[in-house]
Amino acid sequence: MYSKILIYRRGSIGDAIVSIPAINEIRRQFPHAEIRLLSNTPVSERAATASSILEETELVDGSFHLPPGGGGVSTLSQVRAQIKAWAPDALIYLSEPSKLYRLMAEVAYFRWCRVSTLLHVPWGAEYRTYKKREDELYESESSRLLRAITGQPESKPEWDFTLPRSAHEEAKGALAGWDGVAGFLAFSLGAKLPDKDWGEEKWKACLDALSECRPRLGIVCIGAADESAACDRVLTGWRGPKLNLCGQTAPLASAAIMEQAVIYLGHDSGPMHLAALVQTPCWAIFSARAKPGVWFPHGDNHRIFYPWELARTAPARTGFRTAGNSILSVKRDDVRAALLGWAETLSAG
């Protein structure tokens, strides 16, 4: 029916990864269409673009980039000209929930770009909010997106995703000759927002204790270039092999590296979602910036440290831009004890 489809999805690495089931569904519905992505360039220089994940695969065939922070008339006009020249038959709305006034502005922009058919625009509040589950969790962003595409609340996410050969080759080169490759954890300090940063001192205390317990365990740091120095500071007491790759590998190559790790350890971040994508167990520390479950890594065998007391006593305070310093309520001693308990289950060495 449609030969050219434009998918609108804001965000960076994590936003791209959680949209994979919805994009797989779009591919299933329109198997012969050329599909391109309309996304934004992240405001934070730390964050990689969504297209850096999706363009390297068969999920999308190309992309357009909106300027960071919304941009001005000139830059928006340039993107408009690119979209008009490609002339998509339809646009599928696949972004995080927007305030109604912002949603109206986005739709007006799409119309200005001469996109005549807009699909799955979440005018109804039920598609701009997360459903509460029977347990303490809310539906994930990937589930909300899939629900918006299919109209079925119980649609099963399809996580089919294959890392390109180039990612495996880059990962192999990055780990070549390193003596920790036989057994290591992947670590990321990535936190593009201050309220998602647990703090270097807490991380150092936990990693020092873990390394003392398992002195031959290796560690690989994954993240942006400007996180490299912080990782070096945190790992001054690490006894085993260590390799700081912050800023040195592309996102999908980082995923290929983390695929070989025993666990991922770090903040709620893009690297966490990359680790979950390749089925590496994630030990992740969250703030209450999002309601519990919305941005948890998909899959099983993860260990989540979340401000549960806040979620139970004041659930209205959990959610976008209301988290404050909630991540600091995750206790250092709780994380350290959990890591030491995990270390005892590892084979001797």
Question: How do the strands and helices of this protein lay out in sequence?
Answer:
Elements: E1 4-8, H1 13-18, H2 20-29, E2 34-40, H3 51-54, E3 63-66, H4 73-86, E4 90-93, H5 100-112, E5 117-119, H6 141-150, H7 165-175, E6 184-188, H8 200-213, E7 218-221, H9 228-234, E8 242-244, H10 251-258, E9 264-267, H11 270-277, E10 282-285, E11 303-305, H12 308-313, H13 332-345
**N/C terminus separation:** 59 Å
The helix-and-strand class reads: alpha/beta
Number of helices: 13
Main sheet: strand order? 8-7-6-9-10-11
The main pleated sheet reads as: 6 strands, parallel
Mean pLDDT across all amino acids: 91
Number of extended strands: 11
N-to-C order of helices and strands: EHHEHEHEHEHHEHEHEHEHEEHH
Rg, rounded, reads 21 Å
| Amount of helix | 25-40%
From the spread of the alpha carbons, the general shape counts as globular
Strand content: 5-15%
Which regions contain 5 or more consecutive residues with pLDDT less than 50? none
